[in-house]
Amino acid sequence: MTVTDAATGPVETTEARSAALHRADPQLADLLAAEAERRAETVQLLAGENLTGPAVLAALTGPLIDKYAEGYPGRRHHAGCALADAAELLAIDRARELFAAPHANVQPRSGTSAMLAAYAALLRPGDVVLAMSLEHGGHLSCGSRANFSGRWFDFVGYGVRREDGLIDLDQVRELALRYRPKAIVAGSISYPRHPDWAAFREIADETDAYLVAAAAQTTGLIAAGVAPSPVPYADVTVAATHKLLRGPRGGLLLCTAELAERVDRAVFPFSQGGAAMNEVAGKAVALAEASTPAYRAYAHRTVAGARVLAAGLAQAGARPLTGGTDTHLVTADVGPLGVSGAEAERRCAAAGLLLGKCALPYDEAPPSEASGIRLGTGTVTSQGMGEPELAEIAGLIGRLLVDGTNVRVAEGVRQRVRELARAFAGRR
Ligand SMILES: Cc1ncc(COP(=O)(O)O)c(C=O)c1O
């Protein structure tokens, strides 16, 4: 279908759309141009971001963007949904196949709304939930008082061991036996190792709890078989399509056949109205791409790069949590270098290296300062950077943390970051 712009006629191509935006809203067009320039000048190491590829973008901006399709395929509340149904069924079938899941729901608009639906499917307000504490790397949706989760449910937090940074499964079992949670949540925003899904299942069975896998961070690694899958163990797996999976911003729910209807009802009509059908179409494309050998190679390179990054940061004097990583994530204590996480984030951002400050387990610094940084290799690997570049980036970060108040050092790093960013800009 063709959208008609009165001044130009049909607006089909990216260029024509861009020209239409410049005419309609030059102020916003300029902002977007500046954002593109910012991207081209920086090295993006924020763990949850990635680059959306051209095929997914085409689906996102395709005609389903305008379609209202409340409900599910074959059971819609709107007319004209036959092709929207077909697109959603493609996405569902691909998700089920890729993750070997009995049931998939592709409608959640974000990771957090998928978490909301998972809880809604399994719990009642006031129920006890055992999840990783926020201080040790739990997501906002795992009991923050500022989030629905902490308001509506009674969260108990488990954590990692002080000595090795690994999840303390003895503590998980002990808390589960003591508090008898209705659900146990496994998964984190900053834990760089794979949760022991089988052990969590065993504890859930022993205490008659549901097991929810909060797997938004590692969805792509699970799809590629680079991380162990929670799907055979969890009652509900919460995934995200916009991180390593390189799809549209959104969530994805995988569950057992018995829970299928409850999960679907928890998404629509309980927590959402009409799904964004263009996002559903984009998810179908991303899921097809994630089932290719090229994507599996990407996932392997992402983890290999993160290992090099962790080793390089250790060499520079930082302390990677758990001693390294099995994922795209590196969480490191920068205290030994005499800076806070916030200062590390500021210095690196000024030099064009984007990473996040991160409160660490047992952190004594206030959360606004924090002692750690959190980085991920998803975007830079999508751009074609590999182990040599990540070793160099670790060295550049190290120089900034040790000596970044020296203007010449900071300027030298800024220059090199710009070169790296330009050399790999738009590789995807
Ligand atoms: C484990 C986990 N759950 C949920 C989310 C939330 O995803 P979203 O930002 O799409 O709401 C994240 C995002 O970082 C996450 O890491």
From TrEMBL:
Q: Which gene encodes it?
A: glyA
Similarity section: Belongs to the SHMT family.
Instruction: Quote the CDD domains the UniProt record gives.
Output: SHMT (cd00378)
Q: Which reaction does it catalyse?
A: (6R)-5,10-methylene-5,6,7,8-tetrahydrofolate + glycine + H2O = (6S)-5,6,7,8-tetrahydrofolate + L-serine
- Which residue ranges are recorded for the region named Disordered? 1-20
Which annotated residues bind (6S)-5,6,7,8-tetrahydrofolate? 134, 138-140, 258
Report which residue ranges the record marks as coiled coil. none
Which cofactor is essential here? pyridoxal 5'-phosphate
Subcellular location, record wording: Cytoplasm
Name the principal localization, coarsely classed.
cytoplasm
Protein known as: Serine hydroxymethyltransferase
> Gene3D superfamilies given for it?
Aspartate Aminotransferase, domain 1 (3.90.1150.10), Type I PLP-dependent aspartate aminotransferase-like (Major domain) (3.40.640.10)
Q: What EC number(s) does its UniProt record assign? A: 2.1.2.1
Q: Which residues form the Serine hydroxymethyltransferase-like domain?
A: 22-397
Outline the subunit composition: Homodimer.
Any idea what job this protein has?
A: Catalyzes the reversible interconversion of serine and glycine with tetrahydrofolate (THF) serving as the one-carbon carrier. This reaction serves as the major source of one-carbon groups required for the biosynthesis of purines, thymidylate, methionine, and other important biomolecules. Also exhibits THF-independent aldolase activity toward beta-hydroxyamino acids, producing glycine and aldehydes, via a retro-aldol mechanism.
* Native source organism of the sequence: Kitasatospora putterlickiae
